[in-house]
Amino acid sequence: MAHILALSNQKGGVGKTTTAVNLAAGLARYGQRVLLVDLDPQGNASSGLGYAREDVTMGIYDVLMEFRDIDSVRMPTALDNLEVIPATVDLVGAELELVGAERREYRLKKVLNRVADDYDFILIDCPPSLGLLTLNTLTAANAVLIPLQAEYYAMEGLGELLRTIHAVRKGLNPELVREGILVTMMDGRNKLCREVERQVRHHFKEGVFETVIPRNVRLGEAPSYGKSIVEYDPRSTGAQAYLALAREILQRHGISTPE
pTM of the entire structure? Predict the structure, then answer.
């Protein structure tokens, strides 16, 4: 059964969607069967893999609302082993529409359980909030990966997310754990970035990934071409960092990878 990984941070602009897309691509490059679920109404993970939100007619919203079966919205990508369930414009209203739904926190879990045996990893790109869609993700997931930007306000809001994870573990999903904190947008020449990384590692210790994602122009360019960084520029420092992150995660799960 797939390891279901939520990528969450309610603070925007921390590299959450960039990590979702490129980690999914990296895992696929190492032979893992991967599904990326775009649960962010902005739809950037979908467009980053070639499915612009305005061109998508059905996606995860339709499955959550039980209008369609999940098999009808799983879409192929340019990478072998990687599929995506895109976001549509309708996802914007999903939180309100789910408010009165029966077992509303378990909608996504029910959906993903139907296909969990088809994949090694299912990655879910959460919206930048702690609303009902994120709650669905944390209820469905085995673990949470938290991207954390190397900047002055890096820890802002992190406590709230950690409290939410604790509450979900206590009330809805006792199996939920932290996969790890990922330092993103790192500029090693910047003293402040280095200090933020030092503080995060001091506070969370082994809960922080060894891999650090650097600031990289190519990472910003790749989505405009509808490609992951490992397709767009596999030699770039961004691509190498996300491949290293994929290896680190696989090694944590006892799966060997080629160097």
Answer: 0.95
